[in-house]
Fold these 4 entries.
Entry 1:
Amino acid sequence: MNEASLVGLLFATVSFGALLYLAALGELLAEKAGVLNLGVEGMMAIGAVTAFIAGVEFQNPWLALVIAMLSGALLASVHGFFTVGLGAEQVVSGLSLTILGVGLAAYLGKSYVGLPPGAELVPVEWGSLSDWPWVGPILFSQAPIVYLALVLGITVSLTLSRTRLGLALRAAGESASSTDSAGHSVLGLRLSAVAAGGALAGASGAYLTLSITPQWAEGVTAGRGWIAVALVIFGAWRPGRVGWGALLFGGTLALKTRLQTFGVDFSPIILSMLPYVLTLLILLIISIQARKRPSPAPAALGLAYRREER
């Protein structure tokens, strides 16, 4: 393995890490408010296809990103309506959302398969910083959405830990009745968190078709939404730990695409399995640990709340 290959691997690790982090951050917001949303894959797919379509039609990557985020938020709001508004079972609704999102994305993108991208999020120019050995190519030659993911991660972390809004949001995920008694709208907090999470998942999908693989093809999300869900558990519902986990899983995705360029004779099928096998192993380890100590998950996660049930 030469220096250029290693730099390329680390560059891809950061890129894929940011992709996963955006989606996982959105899921973390929803779960902190007490709503489990297993529709991340579907929201990413909708974000990916709407971003690509908007890029082709309007040729503006930033407008395409905004449209993708709105699309993700809209789809997430469907989940919020059924689970938060009507008290529907959250696992069933989330799985249905994934099926709906992936199917709808395939339908919307049918006539765009094989078309060249109309817009791309090109890497940010950092001047002399980009020329630094190792650090420059890896950290200062990324697409702007990578830096957006970092800023959003810090913002979410500070909001959850140091603001009244964050306190109320976390309270809604721990004890909805107490939050209601304190004068906060559990319905409003949960719906807002779910919609915001959908917007971030949509942005993650947009990153795929506007930068990482600037084209549309059915199945472009390739199960990465499920990795994002697992990352929230892996990171113990903490934005910082989720970020480090995203880099770890991003590294496995990068290996999948780069290992063969290092001259390593390895089955592409096994490489494709690597991120998901790692996901299962980590979930198994966490499940075993959960038997020995209390889970850090929000106490009211997955539980519907109706005001008259206080």
Note: The first helix runs from residue 3 to 32.
Entry 2:
Amino acid sequence: MAHRAATGWGRARLALATGAALLFGAATARAETYALVVGINHYPYDVSLDGALQDAEDVGQALRKAGIANVAEFLNEKAVKADIRRAWQEEVERAGAGDTIIFHYAGHGAQMPELVAGDEADGLDEFLQLPGFDRTRAKETQSEIIVDNELNSWFQEAEAKGVHVLFVSDSCFSGGMSRSATGKLRLAAPLKVKLPITTPEAVEGAKLKESNFQLATVLAASLESQPTPEVVIGDKPRGALSWSFARALEGAADRNGDDIITRVELEKYVFAVVKSESEALQVPNFTPQLPRSEDEVVIRLPSRAVTAPGNEPVAIEDGANQTATGQPSAGTTQMPGTGEPPQWHAALSLRVIGQAPALENIVDGDLPYEWDVASGVFRTPNGDVAGEDIGADRVQSVIDKFILLDFLKFLALKNPGDVSLKPFQDIYAAGDRMTFSVPDSGYRNRLVFNLANTGEVQFLDMQVGAAAANPPALEQLEVTEPYGADHLIVISTNEQVKPIGDAIANTSLSPATLLSVLRGQLEGTETAIAIQPLYTRENR
């Protein structure tokens, strides 16, 4: 894209509603944290998922590494409602006032006709779908869904004891895709049949409104109108919210290192990381829109056992150049302490369709980028068109652009910056105009550039010293050709940025050269990296 200046659970109720956050008050110094983790890939009677099981395992591991020992996990066929309900009741019984229960769910969500007439404005309840539910035998198997009304009752049980609840729902209940992303949606087909009421919680929970809850937090993966697709992170299908939440638990969201994650810290971290890792396919949903105070506590890290990504020495080795049939680079950097696949290495997983010249810095992978030599279409692992008419003369720059982007995403895990486009869309069409906004970060220097879909590095703005508090000179953008995936990058730091900015502005700096410069300049420094994916096309 060329730039030019331009002249469920989302209701008023708490449960599953807006993916909301009603946040914790001050917790006691000795407050305990309990956790219940559910992850389901295998659905015998529905479309199975690819990344929900790994999401749950990742979150469970992050909880334990954070010093939270009371973790009950229910994975795949073990995710039985009666067992989950029993575990919830046991945790509520064990917990005392000021304690916290974290409930993480990764799997399908769906909608159905409301159980209690007049309960929902649109006449639909939302529910979490467990493996034992078969919609062709809905009444016989309805014991294997958890309805939003029931969750209201569960949360009220904790509320009555003064126990805080953090519910993280990596699923969705409605919404359609605008882009061509190929990841599986965590959205099962809506249920048409009206089910009978079989639990008292379904009735009692319908009476509860948002005002009844002061200690519960519900964090959803996306806005009510958005679907939640699985996306490729580290060459694996994952839920962007679960992945980001696990990194937050490891301490990356704890910006001041006090072993407490506040609402402000969690919101800033999760919003930024979900946006970059999902390539702006989804926006997490918090409610209320504003925190009750700047120091509201949402998570306590009782004895964090791992160092936040980027706070430890990081050794990143250059991978040897590879051809299309090469083997993975030996130089990799792994997410500290998680056992996760490498989050950055100096090579790109790429599948080439057709005869191509020898290419550098590419490897084989399970979920690769894809370049069609004949058509010139370059696609991301998520299936999006990243570039059109990418010929042999440009493809190496596009490869190097995405290697550089992965490096910037890795740095952003430590300290994600803030940047936004308004109006927000997951894809923009030719002629669309948008406002580019960068709030004051508190750093002395700021550099803004674009990694274009052609592989070019385009200088946009640089502010040094006191001027860094000013808005970027380029605030208005308009979509023009070429179309594809651009990435607006904002680097905020106290380090020198003028040599880098001057080099980008005055020369045709390649992504590979910029990567080398940034590694030498920014690694190990206190630097915020903001990434705004910007996908464009010619027509709506």
Note: DSSP finds ten helices and 27 strands in the chain.
Entry 3:
Amino acid sequence: MFEKTTVDENYVRIPREKLFNFVVEIFKRLDVPEEDAKIVADNLIMADMRGIESHGVQRLKRYVDGIKVGAVNVHPNIKIVKESPVFAVIDGDEALGQVAGYRGMKLAIEKAKKGGVGIVGVRNSNHYGIAGYYAYMAAKEDLVGISMTTSRPLVAHTGAMEKFMGTSPISVAAPVEGDYPFLLDMATSVVPSGKVEVYRRKNKPVPGEWAISTETGEIIYDPNEILSPKGTILPLGGLGEITGGHKGYGLSAVVDILAGILNGATWSRHVGGTSDKHSDVGHFFMAIDPGAFGDKDEFKRNMKKFVDELRNAKKHPKFNRIWVHGEKGFLTYESRLKLGVPVYKKVLEEMNAIAEELGVEKLS
């Protein structure tokens, strides 16, 4: 078993199906169609199942609030506005981001199977959850998947001292013969904002140099300050060019270009949050058929050789094991299928308050 059978006293374990059905019912009570509710629930719970607590059910209230204030359209007219055999642009009509994102990657996969590659841009959407959800959709179809999204301004780019760019996540997935898919899922900031929110819920300082004050430029550790106008997260690589902060800044800019500007969506400081009307979040999806380049089975065999070589490289004495991207998440997923999903008690209380308001049976 990858995880311990016991959890911290501040958490409770809930079976995956029970949690899934609860979240689906919450969205249905908010007039979200059942199939769409299942897509959103699957995305949120996959985050928790893979150990990405920052993007799991702790975000449920945020989505519920977005629907309540009318920032999210629960009956969107999602439509293709431009298309060719290998690409498309989709207008999400302010849908739940997971719904627009699912349709975007599904279309990219269909095009890749027919033409070797599928590229789909989505505009006029909302927060779409974990980027890896969509890249993994492609990998499950023996395709290489790429997923990225714009996000609200929370990050100061190199040299700046204000919330200007998004955490702008990128995910790449590829199938591997007889092994877990390679699955990179990363923010282009030091951490995603959701991870700071986890520390705020636990009333603990963040453990690293993740953020600076927007007033002094000094490193700060208080999650409340970081998430307030007085703080801003740093780009991947941290403060300045010596540690490579400019590279995270550059990657974030690439996401704004591909997922935002290219699609006709907005970018960086102009992107809205989950409860903002017309947030105009943009997504970028790409699916590639390895069979269009050569023998697909050979590609998967070579991927297996590659990941095994990564694992078997000379190991640093401070590390117990060399991991391949996505591996921890898959092992965590398997453990939680058996043990249940750990949910922070304060999050559970928040979820049950929503349930009581909507007339849904509470979780216990």
Note: The two ends are 25 Å apart (CA to CA).
Entry 4:
Amino acid sequence: HTQAAAGAVGVIKTVMALEHGTAPRTLHADTPSTRVDWTKGAVRLLRSAQEWPDTGRPRRAAVSAFGISGTNAHVVLEQAPAQSVEESAGSANPPVDTPDVPLLLSARTSPALAEQAARTAQFLRSHPETDPAAAGWSLATTRAGHQHRAVVLGPDRAGLLDSQDALAIGTADPAHVRGTTADSATGPVFVFPGQGSQWWGMGRELYDSSRVFRATVDDCADALGPYVDWSPVDLLRGEGDDPDVLHRADVVQPALFSTMVALAALWRSLGVEPGAVVG
């Protein structure tokens, strides 16, 4: 179970299919299920990669991810619009190839952010040969992210420059948004993972070595006792003669919950206070 990365591979695969115009082969399905009448409807398995022809309309595909712990995600992806290159001869300001180019700016202070906007605008004015889309890529991938941040959007070079000028002098503009990142005092977020991350004896060392972890697991075991026919302590310490009990959803879910609650208590005892707990 890939937990937080569930669905990521499917999205990457689909983006590449949209880009290259090729529908990849359906993996691990060489023998289609006999429970489906494949002669009806338009759904079919691809035994081999097939060309995804250009019909004059954008290619679209849906990606579904169903987590074993109950999380469902669905995303519809559309082929990126074709870039139009319309460079006018002798033009000092060639048009932006991609609509709504974002420029990501950040600085340690609010005045420094305004100065960054002014410098970026001056650079684009001084280098008309620079593609704003390339500048946006560089700003997003090569610059460190500081606490004060802004995003400048523009459909063309002139729009980007106007929005950056507004940001530089502190004037409101619908084409840019600014804000600050969460203060470090907010704390980290603890994520309790779903089913698939368990193993027999997964809490043995911590249970035997940490008083806080052990006490929290014992509290969970006492609370679960009236409702279960197994021992959370034995499971986490790898004791007993039935490791296969972890294949039962009614066992693994409370066991993981007990482990995560105990881990959270341990981290908090060491001074790591979460800003939120999810999962």
Note: The chain has eight helices and nine strands.
